[in-house]
């Protein structure tokens, strides 16, 4: 598996790197293409800018958090507290926008910093407390929810100004018809792809996920790397929270972020990242998030109950991971 | 290192027992929580009296929590990353099945309960098949079925709950009753404790501690490969753990429907759902997430601790603040339980 590639100085000998795109990504591109064509044929309105643009905007937060989650899962961990962390960051930022009337830059910086801080809490507990990531993040999810609800006070945050419209659905949120939120997500995904594939630091994440003990003996500072993975996730959660506020109405209610952690994990595993660690790709995660959102959009456009899209998400997870299992079995028997 | 270990072994002090054995620790914590709230109550700091009647009435919340905690116990024990995220969705979906069978088609109650439990077991069998026979990681398989079951439960009756008269009459199942013989000396106890919780606790305990299947489950959870080379039916054993978890979730569905007097399509997944609290209870009860370690008594005591702690917190704050501080308490307890596990693993070489 990729452990062998990670232990060698991967930067200089590009031959040992896995191919730039994995089979899973090609399959996902194919599935998304077929889905889009099918939707186009059944409802011609689907292939218009008015339908694709909201789809891309809605994909952005899940895909962005998914980039961080992919790195965390590559190290063999998991973070189920991102939904609650989104809630904390978005309510904090929304309150600032309403009460202090801060500008776009300050709002983004505060949100990202808050997210990074929450990620730091997770990272310190997991890297230095040496306990299972899923347990710790279940715990911190409850703590973050408490924090978020305390900031909410009672009820909702009302009258959020349009400061964040740069990331929103409207005309201000697009350049040449491309939504800024999606463009930023694309750029960050590309940067993360390069970082994970072409730098020693990036390869270390794979080494840790493959075998943490071997990575440590090979000189990887495992605890710092693990800490970094959770902090990165937190920073991206902060930015994604700005997207979430921008996409919503002028009112933010307490259900914000609820269930997002499972949506993000679903996008990551559909994208072909192994939950056991050591293998994965942020490109796949972006495609996974796009597929999930396309299905949700398609189900509504066909006039079916919107709840039905969850059934398809479940089926896609089974099919995607099942295909991956079969490929792994084929690799072993070769 | 060995010298320290030697000294520790020779001096079995209280601290060591509390750190390495989860059950005494939980017992001490329960006493602490109850005494703290009694003192607060005597000082008049609570909005309503915290007494034995109140504690007994709060036990109604322990029924679904402890049962699902036991379901997670079985699944997590089976090892290889065993976990079941779909229990809440199974509760929703089996609850709808129960609603149809008893509320719409007017089946006799025993048959409807049997069918619901059977349907839950079928949902669990899908999980078990994916995990044990196909080889899916449990987290992924149950995440997928969580989405699928949740979606079907909501779509099946067009997002509408079923609350026909027979279902509404079931509410009597969740009322408190006076026990026969010595009932007048102790507070009334919620009926669900005797009809559902105690039978489940006894059944799971018998299964784990008194049957060959239970021994096999601990064996495969401790070391999958060793169990296979010893000729144990590893796949079959792990498969059944998920089936039993589904069966228990089906029974919880009946309890939940009775409690709400309505079969709600989102019963097990609304808010943070039922799966996360159940996993929390299991971990708090000393179940090792790596498999092979965990006891029924730990899960039961952990449930009592959380239920009585939550009940007290509700009285200590006015309005919806209490619900928020329950989250704080649950998160803090879970993080400390996990850190404690990590500490004892390094200091004393692990719990039993």
From TrEMBL, chain A:
Its main location: membrane. It holds the Pfam family BPD_transp_2. This is ABC transporter permease. The lineage of its organism: Bacteria, Bacillati, Actinomycetota, Actinomycetes, Micromonosporales. It is found in: Cell membrane. PANTHER family: ABC TRANSPORTER PERMEASE PROTEIN YPHD-RELATED-RELATED, RIBOSE IMPORT PERMEASE PROTEIN RBSC. The keyword Membrane applies. Coiled coil: none annotated. One of its GO terms (cellular component) is plasma membrane. It comes from Actinoplanes aureus. GO terms for molecular function: transmembrane transporter activity. Keywords: Cell membrane, Membrane, Transmembrane, Transmembrane helix. It is a multi-pass membrane protein. The chain crosses the membrane at residues 26-43, 55-74, 105-128, 134-155, 176-196, 227-250, 262-291, 311-328.
Automatic annotation (TrEMBL), chain B:
The chain crosses the membrane at residues 21-39, 59-78, 85-103, 109-131, 138-156, 189-208, 241-261, 267-289, 296-319, 325-343. GO terms for molecular function: transmembrane transporter activity. The keyword Repeat does not apply. GO terms for cellular component: plasma membrane. Coiled coil: none annotated. It is a multi-pass membrane protein. Pfam families: BPD_transp_2. It is found in: Cell membrane. Its main location: membrane. Keywords: Cell inner membrane, Cell membrane, Membrane, Transmembrane, Transmembrane helix, Transport. InterPro entries: ABC_transp_permease. This is Autoinducer 2 import system permease protein LsrD. It comes from Actinoplanes aureus.
């Amino acid at each position: 598996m990729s452990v062998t590639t990670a232990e060698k100085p991967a930067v200089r000998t590009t031959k040992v790197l896995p191919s730039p795109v994995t089979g899973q990504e090609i399959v996902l591109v194919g599935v998304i293409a077929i889905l889009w064509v099918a939707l186009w044929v059944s409802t011609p309105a689907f292939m218009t800018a008015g339908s694709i643009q909201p789809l891309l905007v809605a994909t952005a937060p899940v895909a962005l958090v998914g980039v961080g989650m992919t790195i965390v899962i590559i190290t063999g961990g998991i973070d189920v507290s991102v939904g609650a962390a989104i809630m904390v960051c978005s309510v904090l930022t929304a309150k600032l926008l309403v009460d202090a009337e801060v500008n776009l830059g300050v709002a983004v910086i505060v949100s990202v910093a808050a997210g990074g801080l929450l990620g730091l809490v997770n990272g310190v507990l997991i890297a230095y407390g040496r306990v299972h990531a899923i347990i710790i993040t279940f715990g911190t999810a409850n703590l973050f929810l408490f924090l978020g609800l305390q900031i909410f006070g009672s009820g909702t945050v009302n009258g959020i100004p349009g400061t964040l419209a740069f990331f929103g659905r409207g005309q201000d949120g697009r350049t040449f018809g491309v939504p800024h939120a999606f463009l930023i997500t694309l750029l960050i995904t590309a940067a993360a792809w390069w970082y994970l594939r072409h730098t020693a630091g990036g390869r270390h994440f794979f080494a840790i996920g493959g075998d943490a003990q071997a990575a440590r003996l090979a000189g990887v500072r495992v605890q710092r790397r693990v800490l970094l993975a959770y902090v990165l996730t937190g920073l991206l959660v902060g930015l994604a929270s700005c997207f979430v506020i921008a996409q919503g109405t002028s009112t933010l209610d307490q259900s914000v972020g609820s269930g997002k952690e499972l949506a993000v994990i679903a996008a990551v595993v559909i994208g072909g990242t192994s939950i056991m660690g050591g293998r994965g790709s942020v490109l796949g995660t972006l495609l996974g998030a796009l597929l999930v959102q396309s299905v949700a959009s398609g189900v509504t456009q066909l006039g079916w109950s919107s709840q039905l899209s969850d059934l398809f998400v479940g089926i896609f997870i089974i099919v995607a991971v099942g295909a991956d299992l079969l490929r792994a079995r084929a690799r072993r028997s070769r | 290192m060995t010298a320290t270990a030697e000294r520790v072994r020779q001096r079995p002090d209280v601290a060591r027992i509390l750190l390495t054995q989860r059950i005494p620790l939980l017992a001490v914590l329960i006493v602490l929580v109850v005494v703290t709230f009694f003192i607060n109550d005597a000082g008049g700091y609570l909005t309503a009296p915290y007494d034995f009647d109140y504690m007994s009435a709060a036990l109604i919340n322990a029924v679904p929590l402890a049962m699902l905690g036991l379901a997670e116990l079985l699944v997590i024990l089976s090892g290889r990353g065993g976990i079941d995220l779909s229990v809440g969705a199974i509760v929703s979906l089996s609850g709808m099945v129960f609603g149809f069978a008893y509320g719409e088609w007017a089946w006799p109650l025993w048959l409807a309960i049997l069918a619901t439990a059977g349907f839950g077991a079928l949902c669990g069998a899908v999980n078990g098949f994916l995990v044990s026979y196909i080889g899916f990681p449990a987290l992924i398989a149950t995440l997928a079925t969580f989405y699928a079951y949740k979606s079907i439960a909501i779509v099946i009756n067009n997002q509408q709950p079923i609350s026909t008269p027979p279902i509404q009459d079931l509410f009597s199942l969740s009322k408190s009753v006076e026990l026969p013989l010595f009932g007048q000396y102790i507070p009334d106890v919620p009926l669900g404790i005797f009809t559902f919780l105690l039978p489940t606790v006894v059944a799971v305990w018998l299964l784990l501690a008194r049957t060959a299947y239970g021994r096999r489950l601990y064996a495969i959870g401790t070391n999958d490969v060793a169990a296979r080379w010893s000729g144990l039916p590893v796949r079959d054993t792990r498969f059944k753990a998920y089936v039993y978890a589904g069966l228990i979730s089906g029974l919880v569905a009946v309890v939940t429907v009775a409690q709400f007097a309505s079969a709600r399509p989102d019963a097990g997944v609304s808010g943070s759902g039922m799966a996360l609290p159940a996993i929390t209870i299991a971990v708090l009860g000393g179940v090792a997430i790596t498999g092979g370690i965990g006891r029924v008594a730990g899960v039961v005591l952990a449930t009592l601790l959380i239920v009585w702690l939550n009940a007290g917190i509700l009285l200590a704050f006015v309005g919806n603040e209490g619900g928020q501080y329950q989250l704080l308490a649950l998160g803090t307890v879970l993080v400390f339980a996990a850190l404690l596990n990590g500490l004892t693993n390094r200091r004393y070489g692990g719990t039993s």
